[in-house]
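Contributing new records

If you add data, match the layout below exactly. Sequence lines come first and carry their own label; structure lines follow with theirs. Keep one chain per record. Anything else will be rejected by the validation script.
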Amino acid sequence: MLKSRIITGLVLAAGLIAVCYLLPLTWYALFFWIVGALGAYEYSALAGMVRPLSRYLYVIAFSGLIALTWWQPMLMQAGLWFGVGIWMLALVSVLAYPGSARFIRHGWVTAGAGLLICWAAWIALVVIRDAPSGSHWIVWLLVLVGGADVGAFFAGRSFGHTKLAPAVSPGKTWEGLWGGMAMASLMCGVILLLMGRFNAGWLLIMVLLVVMSVFGDLFESVLKRVRGMKDSGTLLPGHGGVLDRIDSAVAVLPCFALILILGGLSDRA
């Protein structure tokens, strides 16, 4: 399982880096629309949809949002704020679990949240990629999320004993969180130094983003527990579904896009 997980992760990372650097913005946006459509399809199952027609209509609704936003770019910033707002509510639902389960069981709640989450993540990917040094920032974010995941896995397995959220994900520990935060901050801090952009403020940003990535993973765990599902899908060997691989990233993306763009950090040395 671990071997297939590592191989799949490396292949995905190489492919995403190639997409970020080699594709023009239009094809890049189209590629991530496909990824988002796969994620939306899996969200439909987490929302309790079982009929194929319902799930396909859900993907069509997501695609309609993407098309509208592509042709009306003024919607992008609003979409990012909607995404951050949804993730704040998701954070509350994780902290309140299992009490929050009675709300999440309403399929329309998860369905609406899933559409906004996938939409905001796609917007963030496009906005960041279109910013100065955009491809570098996308890769930087992938390193942060990947570093946090790997650091948490090994630190948790080696030193973990204090449960982080036992009702939601018994395998996660505080020691894993600190290990993931340390690895992500170290790796991304080095990249920022090489880019000539590091300052103390970035430490706070990295801590915030790592915490968001953890809650992204925990929120999907809440949804799967409510629906009695082990994985969101079976598309990726060793990882489960698409959402099982990108749940952390989709939580981080809207927040990072707003920090990067509104803070003017993408073009500030």
